[in-house]
Amino acid sequence: xxxxxxxxxxxxxxxxxxxxxxxxxxxxxxxxxxxxxxxxxxxxxxxxxxxxxxxxxxxxxxxxxxxxxxxxxxxxxxxxxxxxxxxxxxxxxxxxxxxxxxxxxxxxxxxxxxxxxxxxxxxxxxxxxxxxxxxxxxxxxxxxxxxxxxxxxxxxxxxxxxxxxxxxxxxxxxxxxxxxxxxxxxxxxxxxxxxxxxxx
Length: 200
Fold this sequence. Notes:
Blueprint (H helix, E strand, L loop, with lengths): L22 E6 L3 H20 L7 H23 L3 E6 L3 E6 L6 E5 L3 E10 L1 H4 L3 E5 L3 E5 L3 E8 L4 E5 L3 H12 L21
Parallel strand pairs: 7-9
Antiparallel strand pairs: 1-2, 2-3, 3-4, 5-8, 6-7, 8-9
Helix pairs in contact: 1-2
């Protein structure tokens, strides 16, 4: 968690920089490459059993072992590569979250469905029961790829989405800036009512 200095010369004491037309950010967890390597090892073990096996107890146990190793390896490989990193994009229309190198799973939330955006100073896999795409009834949905800061997006129906992303404060600013109502005027808000009568 970062502590902001109260020194007026500190950068955080100055007004925020203008929000870009499109804000992008991401979070990465390189440690998941180790689990991906373990998945590859499981697949290799399954292939080795299938190609060069001296089992004499029958084909059924061998087949189950091969299928088990390959299945576990593929699940580990996909589960880690899909959540090695997460990318967040905020534009004038929506907040978009893409996971992994293929951008899947992907979620696009129109800003018209968003009512608030808040900073989450510390998001950990322990809070959500692991990393990846998580859901807990009392906490909502989350995309967690590493321990650290993130954002919490609250939707109009009360649901929340928590996403780990670097420079989360800038992401929150970008979303909040687009949720602000425009200046009053023709087409930008309700028309002004008749003037109130003067008091006697």
